[in-house]
Amino acid sequence: MNPAEAKARIEALSKEINHHNHLYYQEDRIEISDFEFDRLLEELIRLEKEFPQFLYPDSPSQRVGGTITKEFETAEHEYKMLSLGNTYSPEELVAFDERVAKGLGHRDYAYFCELKFDGVAISLVYENGRLVRAVTRGDGTRGDVVTENVKTIRNIPLVVQGKNVPDKFEVRGEVFLPLKEFEKINNEREILGEPPLANPRNAASGTLKMQDSGVVAKRRLNCYFYQLLGEDIGVSKHDEAIALIESWGFNVSPTHFKANNIQEALGFIDSWREKRFTLPLDTDGVVLKINDYDQREELGFTAKIPRWAIAYKYQAESAQTRLLSISYQVGRTGAITPVANLAPVHLAGTTVKRASLHNANEIIRLDLHEGDLVHVEKGGEIIPKITGVVLEKRQPGAKSITYIDHCPECGTHLVRKEGEAKHFCPNTKACPPQLLGRMEHFVHQRAMDIDSLGTERLRTLIDEGFVKSPADFYGLKEKQHQLLGLEMGQDQYQKTDDGILYIGLPKALFALTELISLSAIEKFCAEQIEKPMMQVLQLFQGYIRNSKKKVAQNVGMVQLLENALLVSSLPPMEDYVPVAVVLGLLVGNKASTGQLIEAAYHQNTVHGTLLKLDVKLGDGQEERIKKLKGNSFQEGVIGNMLEGIEASKNQPFEKVLFALGIRNIGENTAQLLARHFKNIDALREASTEQLLEINGVGETLVHSLHEYFKDKENLQLIEKLKDAGLNFSVSEQSVSLASNKLAGLKILASGRFTHFKRDEIIDFVESHGGTYVGSVSKSLDFIIEGEEMGPSKKEKAEKLGIKMISEAEFLKIVNG
Ligand SMILES: NC(=O)c1ccc[n+]([C@@H]2O[C@H](COP(=O)([O-])OP(=O)(O)OC[C@H]3O[C@@H](n4cnc5c(N)ncnc54)[C@H](O)[C@@H]3O)[C@@H](O)[C@H]2O)c1
Ligand SMILES: [Zn+2]
Fold it and tell me: Required co-factor (predicted)?
C-alpha cells in the first residue's frame, strides 16, 4: 500500500468506525457485529502504526467511542474512564503478557481475571458515605449525570457503612438488564403492541438515559462492580479492593479469579467459554488486569487504554449440521417467523436444534435448499443463527426452500406489506396466536386486570373453542361445568400437519411406569437428548434396573412401548410418541388400535381424546391415564377465574377502551379520549376535526379509530360487552374536582413545562374545573406559554390577541 492509498483507507475506516460508534453509543443500535467492528478498528490501528504521518489526534483509535447525550447535566471524571484493548486470539494474549513482563522487568505479577460484562459502564461517587453522583462514561472525560436513574437500581447502596470507608471514593461497574427481565419486558411489549427492545445491552443503555426515572425503576436494572478509586482507599491490590467494596455492600459477580501467570489466565478463559451462557447476563469475554496497583502505575496508559489490562473476547462459536425442515411461527401480531429445525448439534455449551431465520429475505440470502448442511453460530444472542451453507455438500437435485403462502395456524393467505421484511397473517380476529395476543391484551393488568387468566389458561380456552372474542369471557359462567377437567399445558403435545396427536416421551414413560418420578424421567431424557429415541428407550430400561423399582413390570412396559412403536403405522417423531399408541398400552382391550387412532385424530389433548373415545375405564386405568394429562381446570381454578372476570366489570371506561386493543391507542391515549368524550358513543361519532382538536391526537390515530368503528363485528363486540355490564362511559363520581379555580375558563398550553409532562397539564386544568382546548381559537381565555412554544401557534395567538401567561403565573392562579 502506498501512502496515498493508506491515507484514503485510514480516512474511510475512521468514517465508518465513527458511524458505528455513533449508532452504538448514541442511538443504542448496531448494524454490524462486535467482531466486525473490532476488525475495522484493528485494521485502522495497524495502518496508523505503519503510516504514523496519518495518525490524527481525533482518530477513533485515540478516543473512547461514546459521548455525552446533551440531555443531562454533565460532570467531569476525576479519573478518566477509558476503553480496554481487546483481542480474540490466545497468541496475542501471550504477546500482551510478554510486553507486561518486559515492562515490569520480569518481576512477579498476577492477573486478576473478571468476566467482561456486556452492559453500560457507570461511575458512582460517594462522599461521606453517601452517593452524590452517578455518571456515564460519556467521552471518557465527561459523562452524563444520571444519579436519579441509578438510584432506582435496588442493590446500589445509597449510603455506605462499614469498616474503613474513606471520606471520598469512586466505584465503577457495569449496569445491565438481566436476561430474564429482558425477555419479560419484550413479552409484555409484544402483548401491548410495542416494538421489542433489540438486545439487553442496548436496553440497559437506553434505560439509563431515560428522562423519567419512574419508568427506569420498572425496568429492574442490576449492576456488577469491578473497580474502586480514590486518594485514600487503604488498599494496594485489586483483589483487596474487590473484597472491600463487596464488604461495603456493592454487588460483585462471584466469577472472578486470581491467576499467577498467563497460562492460568488462559485456563480460566477456557473454563468460562461455555459456562458463561448460564450467567444471568450477557458476557463477551474475560478482562485481565494486573493485580498490583504500583505495577499498574509502572505500566501506565495510552490515550485510550490502560497498558496493564486487556480484554480477551470470545469469538462466536460455530458448528455444522443438517437442516431438517423449516417451521413457521405465527406471533401475537400475526408476524410470521421462519425457524430452521436442525439435526441436534453441540454448540457453546448447549444442544442446538433450532435457529432463527428472521424472514423470507434471510432464506433467499442464504439460498437455503432442502437438506442443506449449514453453519450455525452462537454469539451473544440467545437464539443461534445460520450463517451459511456448505455448498459442496449439497445433495444433487435438492430443491430450494419455498416460503409458505398460507398461515400455518389458520390457513389464511399471507400478506407482505410494501417495504416490510416479514409476512403477516391478516386474519387478526380468528387466527389462534393473534387471538391469544388480543386476549392477553384484554385481560392485562393495565387493561381489564383479570390476573386469574394467565397465558396457559387463555390458550386452553381458545384452543378448545370457549373463547373467540373478549365477550365470551362474560359467558363462561354458564359453561363452567364444561370447563371442569379441561386440560391445560398443551406444551407437552405436538401435532403433525395432518392432525395426528403426539405426547412428549417423558410424560409417556411416567404414565407407563410406577414409582419413578416425572422429574427424574425428565432429567434422564434431557441427558439423552442427542440420541435417537429408540436408543433412549433401551437406555431407560437400564436406568429402571439400576433404580431397582418394580423392575420386571416397568421394564416390561417400556418394551411393550418399543414394540408398539415399531409396528405402528403412525410416522415417528423424535422425542414424542403418538397418543394413540400410549393409550393403547394403558386401556388394554377397552378399545382397538383403529378406534384409538380415530379418537386422537384432530384432538389437542388426552382429555379430549378420551371424551371422544367414550369408553368406561377401570379405576387403575383412570389413575395411570391421569399421569399422562397436563394440569387441568379444577373447581378452585374455575371459581377464581370467574371471580376475576366478574370483578373486571368495575374497571373504568378508560381501561375498557384500552382493553379493546384499537390500533395505536395506548394506555395514555385511551385515558385522554375517555376523559374527553366521556362515553363510547360520543367517541364513535366524533368527527375528524373534533378528534384533531385534542392535543396529542394525530392523523394516524383518527384513521385507526375510524377503521375500528367501521367494522360491524367491533360494534357488535361493544354491544355485547355493554350488555355484560362493562363501563363504556365515565362514571360521574370518578370525576371529582380538585378545585373550581379554573371553572368556566377555556385554556390551551403549548411548549415544554417544568412542572408538567405533556398530558399532565390537561388533567390539571380539567381537575380544577377548566376546559382544555386543543387548538388556538378566539374562544380561549388564555394560553399557558411554555418553553419553545410552537411558532405557528404563537403567531396565530398574537394575531387573535389572546392573552398568554407563563407557567409560574398559571400556577399562581390555581395555587394562590
Ligand atoms: N457493533 C458495533 O457497531 C459496535 C460499535 C461500537 C463499539 N462496539 C463494541 O463495543 C466495545 C467498544 O468499546 P468500549 O470502549 O465500550 O468497551 P471496551 O471493549 O473497550 O471495554 C471497556 C468497557 O468494558 C466494560 N466492562 C465490562 N466488564 C468489565 C470488567 N470486568 N472490568 C472492566 N471493564 C469492564 C466497561 O463498560 C468498560 O467501559 C467493543 O467490544 C466493540 O466491539 C461495537
Ligand atoms: Zn393465521
Answer: Mg(2+); Mn(2+)
How many domains would you assign to the chain?
7
Using 50, 70 and 90 to split pLDDT, how confident is the model at 385? confident
Residue 120: the pLDDT is 95
The pTM of this model reads: 0.67
Q: Which atom of ligand 1 is nearest to the CA of 38?
A: 43
Q: What is the pLDDT of residues 472-520, one digit of tens each?
A: 999 999 999 999 888 886 778 988 777 889 999 999 999 999 999 999 9
Inside any domain, residue 73: no
Q: Which residue has a Cα nearest atom 6 of ligand 1?
A: 21
Cβ neighbours around 455 below 10 Å, total: 13
Quote ipTM for the complex. 0.95
Assigned domain for 419 exists: no
**164 and 263 together in one domain:** yes
CB burial readout 371-400, b (16+ within 10 A) else e: ebbbebbbbbeeebbbeebeeeeeeeeeee
Outline where 104-199 has alpha helix (H): 147-151, 179-191
Q: Which residues form the domain of 47? A: 3-54
For residues 514 and 476, state if they share a domain. no
Residues 606 and 666 in one domain: no
Contact 807, 753 (CB under 8 A): yes
Residue 562 located in a structural domain: yes
Residue 405 lies in a domain: no
**Where would I find the H helices in 51-167?**
90-103, 147-151
**Ligand 1 nearest atom to the CA of residue 35, by list position:** 43
Poorest-pLDDT segment among 57-61, 98-102, 337-341, 416-420 = 416-420
Ligand 1 pocket, CB under 6 A: 20-21, 24, 30, 32-34, 37-38, 64-65, 83-84, 86, 114, 116-117, 121, 137, 174, 226, 287, 311
| Protein residue with least CA distance to atom 7, ligand 1 | 21
Distance CA 387, CA 376 (A): 6
